[in-house]
Amino acid sequence: MTTYIECIGRRKESTARVRIMPGSGKFIVNDRDAQEYFPRVGDLETILKPFMAANQDRNTFDVSVLVKGGGVSGQTGAVTLGLARALARMNAEFVPMLRKYGLLTRDARAKERKKPGLKRARKAPTYTKR
Question: What's the whole-model pTM score?
Fold first, then answer.
């Protein structure tokens, strides 16, 4: 049995459980290839930023991700945080480099709640004089 390091990343309404283990560079997200799951331009580069920040070759690790909830950008941020946390747990020397790029900080921004009398959190109904 291969040993792995598992960490959780969250962003908006998304949660990603990331497992990283020594391997040949496979990146699986919800039983699909990462490029197939995140086809949007720039998303895969964002997700792989922790490897770049830690000066690690992504082809020396296998990554398996289970991501739930939220939309595409939330899931992208959740996977990035989970991967950065897994690399930091794997080797403590990576922490300053990952922190320098802001990859170990959870992005706490979330959708603001709707207020009574408004259409959304801050959008008021159109004013009519008559």
Answer: 0.89
